[in-house]
Write a structure and sequence with these properties.
alpha+beta, five-stranded antiparallel beta sheet
Length: 288
């Protein structure tokens, strides 16, 4: 028996080994970009930044309260879509470098004793607060690209009405109504197909092409778009032009198709019901 096809006693194949076999497989990310962004896996990116903070232990009580409140606000900034972690790297402080960093140079102006005393105070306070450690702090946060795309594209999905007084979300349609409209439209396609077949399959063509004109006014611009595309999907009718003020010019193949377009309680009313909007309809005649 070939070894890698061998099964366990319970009849199941052993789990696939996750031990990396190459140096590339051992790297826990896919790519590091020049700006510091790291692609951990497809669609998930992280960044790490280094930050500094003040010494909480040496602050006054009112300062401690303010620091704690700001820290809570900082943590609440990250919602459930952003993963983050804090890293603290503590290293022993070199005493010589530490002394050099806080020492105030003497100026030989008669105030060197004050500078020496102040340097000593700094040395004691910093030594007490840092416990002889140099603390390096990092913040790493990761976010899915889908969240970024949704955040960037959301303003694009807001359509203003003609008066620019209100914006409508493109996908803000009731799912139940959308399903009901879909099946209603499918039934209209069946009826329109039957009408076209009757007009074209017989010994004589029973067609009467014309351009039907009507004005359809609805506050949500999605209504105009849905009506125009629904008309084009229906066999025997094609939307030729739609103006900004709601004027429709539709080519109809038969008299039945033209009569259906001029019925305000048909497709125009159904689209308005889908969006929960009021509408106005005006017949403007036909051109043969």
């Amino acid at each position: 028996m070939i070894p890698f096809l061998k099964k366990n006693k319970d009849g199941k194949k052993p789990p696939k080994s996750t031990v990396p076999r190459t140096a590339q497989e051992s790297i826990p990310f896919q790519r590091m970009f020049e700006d510091g962004t790291c692609r951990v896996r497809p669609g998930y990116y992280t960044r790490t930044i280094q930050y500094q903070d003040i010494n909480y232990q040496l602050a006054q009580q009112e300062d401690k309260t303010a620091i704690f409140e700001e820290w809570c606000s900082f943590l609440n900034f990250f919602d459930s879509s952003i993963h983050f972690e804090l890293s603290f790297v503590n290293t022993a402080t070199d005493s010589a470098d530490f002394e050099k960093s806080i020492r105030i140079p003497y100026q030989q102006d008669g105030f060197d004793d004050v500078r020496a005393e102040y340097s000593q105070m700094l040395r004691q306070q910093l030594s007490k607060g840092n416990n002889g450690l140099t603390k390096t702090k990092f913040l790493t946060y990761g976010i899915l690209t889908a969240v970024i795309v949704a955040w960037v594209s959301y303003p694009v999905l807001l359509l203003p009405n003609r008066e620019q007084t209100r914006k409508y979300f493109v996908l803000g349609i009731n799912p139940g109504k959308l399903i009901a409209y879909f099946f209603w439209l499918m039934w209209q396609l069946v009826l329109a197909n039957v009408d076209v077949i009757k007009a074209t399959v017989g010994p004589e063509l029973v067609i009467n092409p014309c351009v039907v004109k009507f004005r359809y006014t609805i506050d949500n611009p999605m209504g105009t778009m849905i009506l125009a595309n629904s008309i084009t999907l229906t066999p025997g009718t094609v939307t030729m032009n739609v103006t900004e003020d709601g004027l429709f010019e539709v080519h109809a193949l038969t008299d039945g198709a033209a009569e259906g377009l001029e019925d305000p309680m048909g497709m125009p009313a159904k689209v308005a019901w889908l969006l929960g909007q009021d509408f106005q309809f005006e017949k403007l005649g036909r051109d043969y």
